[in-house]
Recover the amino acids of this structure.
């Protein structure tokens, strides 16, 4: 699942970049997913602090959590850019 999300976000980022509009995007949805990744990362931090054994799989999951969170953050930034562009287009009509 996390790998599929990791592959999906670059597609969403590209669409946000090229479309230059926020129409059809849900900031609420992206924030909800972002919070989920915050909790996932927090769980991994707790696992390390409790002293649970960590394997290569632990670090792989950690990497994808962080990568996906960065990608969602980029898409959220593009959302705000695109809202600004939408407002400018509407004002020029």
């Amino acid at each position: 699942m996390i790998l599929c999300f990791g592959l999906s976000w670059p597609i969403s980022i590209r669409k946000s970049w090229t479309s230059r509009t926020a129409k059809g995007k849900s900031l609420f949805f992206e924030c909800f997913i972002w919070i989920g990744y915050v909790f996932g990362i927090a769980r991994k931090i707790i696992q390390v602090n409790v002293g649970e054994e960590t394997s290569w799989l632990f670090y792989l999951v950690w990497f994808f959590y962080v990568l996906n969170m960065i990608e969602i953050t980029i898409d959220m930034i593009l959302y705000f850019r695109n809202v600004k562009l939408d407002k400018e287009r509407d004002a020029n009509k």
In short: DSSP finds three helices and no strands in the chain. The chain has a mean pLDDT of 92. The helical segments are 2-19, 27-50, 56-91. Residues 56-91 form the longest helix (36 residues).
